[in-house]
Amino acid sequence: MSEYTTGELAKLAQVSVRTIQYYDKKNLLKPSHLYENGKRIYSETDLNKLKLILLLKNLGLSLKAIDEILDSQNSMKVMNLLLEQQLRYLHDQLKTSKNQIKMIEEIRHDLPETDQIKIKDIRDIENVMNNKKSLRKVHMTMLIFGFPLDFIEIGTLVWAIMKGDWLPFIIGMTVVLIGAAGLTMFYFKNTNYICPNCNTEFKPEILGRILG
């Protein structure tokens, strides 16, 4: 039967000597032979036991749980119960991680592109996210009402060219201009601006917005 020193065992298991010594201290892995000079000798069985310890540790089990498995007379049943418990824990962690990823993506999406704005507390992040969501609603509303205006404009223009009757086009363009003016006023009313230098939120005059 093969025998290994602490260093040889550590090399075979691809762990440090201190790890072997730590498991020895925790009574997880005792040497098969301990000589008077303190030299420790491990067997092939010890090597397999070490590999089992490392496997269970990589699965997320604590050293205490691993010790329960190794010391139990019904180790297979104990290991199955502990692994089932660990599996539930990992599923909960995965769900939490997915929620965190979703939240991170939403916050990053809603953060302003400028790097001049300083975040002082959680309310700043909440305000940014709420403002972004409100702005998206404004854009969606404009798209919903803007498509019919485009349809009227293009449809009456095609009718005028095909039929030679320009009256529907004139009426349609009047409706389009009124609708466009209404959407513009709606946008101006529901949006504010932030100065990139002083972070002050302001709402410019309509003339200034139009010229801008």
TrEMBL record:
Pfam families: MerR_1. Residues 3-72 form the HTH merR-type domain. Coiled coil: none annotated. It comes from the Bacteria. The chain crosses the membrane at residues 142-161, 167-188. The keyword Heme does not apply. Keywords: DNA-binding, Membrane, Transmembrane, Transmembrane helix. This is MerR family transcriptional regulator. It comes from Companilactobacillus huachuanensis. The lineage of its organism: Bacteria, Bacillati, Bacillota, Bacilli, Lactobacillales.
